[in-house]
């Protein structure tokens, strides 16, 4: 049997990676050839390994710093790094996504070009861009319909929706998506759907009256958890677009005047399906931020959300784009 050199080994596909890290009050560095984070506990300094080959995203929160060597290794492994506030929100600065976000994308000249080329073939056509936006929204609806009534984890947590009620809601939203004449109508339909999902989730968990507050201004647990959890979805979305070589500025629905609208478009594929119910479950269970974050990451991993994002965007890119001349 021929020997395999380490340089010939392939890294883990991003869609199969298991870890998303949120770190605070620590220093990220390279120690003994490994990327680790260093924490102080009393008089001791403790080192914890980050398995970068199996990690998609690292969020650096309050009181963190990172060395140049660590950034080099994270970039080599294709790990996206984001700087954020305490509890994972908000994300800061203006880099890849929008005015509150700093996603540091790994530099690579070897990203695929076929999906970018397909994307730009349709992106400058208003009708085709609307078609792509509708495809994302329809995939989002089917994800909700397939996960909420059938998830054993949600059932075990007491989140049991009536399948017929949810199906009627999804079917009505899908009909509105199909008939939307422009992106403004599509965004209005999205807002109506989200409000209906909030009402359904609040009723299912006996949360009581709920009003979605603007980002960062909500004082109740569900609003805080939604803000926090949505950024995990944005991190996966940023990873998915980087894997496919799609610039964040080529949005089809959200923020066409911002640099990061495509991240929000892609996050829609899983945000309501996975993050929304977990926010209400954790709020009613009295979870701390760390428990909520763990629940979200487990759900995102178990549902193969990154796989779904990547596959959906690949399919949309290739199906919407006209044949090259």
Folded structure, characterized:
The structure is a single chain. The chain has 325 residues and is an alpha/beta fold. It has 10 helices and 8 strands. The strands form 2 sheets. The protein has a 4-stranded mixed β-sheet with strand order 1-5-7-8, with helices on both faces. A 4-stranded mixed β-sheet has the order 4-3-2-6. The longest helix is centred in the C-terminal third of the chain and has 25 residues. It is globular and about 65 Å long. It starts with 18 loop residues before the first strand and ends in a 5-residue tail after the last helix.
Q: Give the strand tally.
A: 8
Give a short account of the largest sheet: 4 strands, mixed
Strand content: 5-15%
Indicate the multimeric state: single chain
Question: What is the share of helical residues?
Answer: 40-55%
Low-confidence stretches: 1-9, 90-101
Query: If helices are DSSP runs of H or I spanning 4 or more residues, what is the number of helices?
Result: 10
Output the helix-strand order: EEEEEEHEEHHHHHHHHH
Mean pLDDT score: 85
The spatial strand order of the largest sheet comes to 1-5-7-8
Shape: globular
Radius of gyration: 20 Å
Q: Structural class, from helix and strand content?
A: alpha/beta
Question: How far apart, in Å, are the first and last alpha carbons?
Answer: 48 Å
Provide a concise account of the structure shown.
This protein is an alpha/beta fold. Helix 2 (114-123) crosses helix 10. The model is unreliable at 1-9 and 90-101 (pLDDT under 50).
